[in-house]
Write a structure and sequence with these properties.
By secondary structure, this protein is of the alpha/beta class. The protein is built from 10 helices and 11 strands. Helix 6 (about 165-185) packs parallel to helix 7. The model is unreliable at about 5-10 (pLDDT under 50).
Length: about 280
């Protein structure tokens, strides 16, 4: 009976190790002195390290990171707190650096005393590449959604179409201020003819944009306020008296040119035709 139990325990242990060896992650177990007492096969194959160069060596000699031997070390934090720790950081395995997500869990005996730490490190290179791609796409979409155009020398226009939320309004401010700095514009027209609805938060953002542009020496003109948006602004009680508003983009451009001292006259052919 004892032999049967021992055999089952051996099979169970071998099965657990086989499962750990097949996981696509770096798995280390250390004692309280940071000596490696277990390493799965993935470390030896991916890191091209001989097993004898892992067991008994310090964990920071196998998987090295900038936080090794500091208070920020996830292994140290798991030892000190007795609780699992999750962290993201770069590690160096056999000279190869890679971004990883770390999970450090304390190893406890039957009495609950911490005897070491089990670390699982997952390579997240592909995940970061995907996240960076999403960020680039998001930035491109934002730039296309809020294009600040130089319409005339000293005059910028920002045509806004669709729904404006707080995040988009914040990006509008950043885009406008950067463009003013680049072009030394004196007037900017924000045309919201294509905006169907607006809440108080967005209205307040527009007020902030006008104040920010004035601080940079640029006059802001808001054009194209629809009847629905006008009623919403009145209903919300948002103070818009400080904002220079015009009915449409044509009137706004005419005002902008007047502010710059530019007079636009009809050509002789336009005058003759009465247009």
């Amino acid at each position: 009976m004892d032999n049967k139990i021992n055999m089952l325990q051996k099979i169970d242990k071998e099965l657990k190790e086989e499962i750990l060896d097949q996981l696509p992650a770096f798995i280390l177990a250390i004692n309280k002195d940071f000596d490696v007492i277990y390493a799965n096969r993935f470390i030896t194959t991916q890191g091209e390290i001989a097993p004898e160069n892992i067991i008994g060596h310090k964990c920071y000699e196998v998987l090295h990171s900038n936080c090794c031997k500091t208070k920020e070390c996830w292994m140290q934090r798991a030892l000190d707190s007795g609780r699992p720790v999750q962290s993201r950081g770069d590690v160096v395995l056999n000279g190869h650096q890679m971004p990883t997500m770390h999970y450090a869990s304390p190893l406890k005996d039957s009495e609950g005393n911490v005897r070491g730490v089990l670390e699982i490190a997952v390579d997240i290179t592909e995940q970061l590449q995907y996240e960076n791609k999403l960020k680039e796409q998001s930035n491109t979409i934002r730039q296309l959604a809020t294009p600040t155009i130089q319409l005339w020398d000293g005059v910028l226009v920002l045509p806004v179409v669709g729904v404006i939320d707080s995040m988009r309004a914040q990006y509008m401010m950043e885009s406008v201020l950067n463009k003013i700095q680049q072009t030394y514009a004196k007037v900017i027209i924000i045309d919201i003819q294509g905006v169907a609805a607006m809440d108080s938060a967005v209205a307040n953002h527009l007020i902030k944009i006008t104040k920010a542009t004035k601080l940079m020496g640029c006059e802001c003109i808001l054009s194209g306020i629809s009847p629905a948006v006008a009623q919403t602004i009145i209903h919300l009680g948002v103070e818009m008296s400080a904002i220079n508003t015009k009915a449409n983009l044509k009137d706004a451009l005419s005002t902008a040119l007047s502010l710059l001292g530019i007079e636009v006259k009809k050509s002789d052919s336009e005058a003759d035709s009465g247009t």
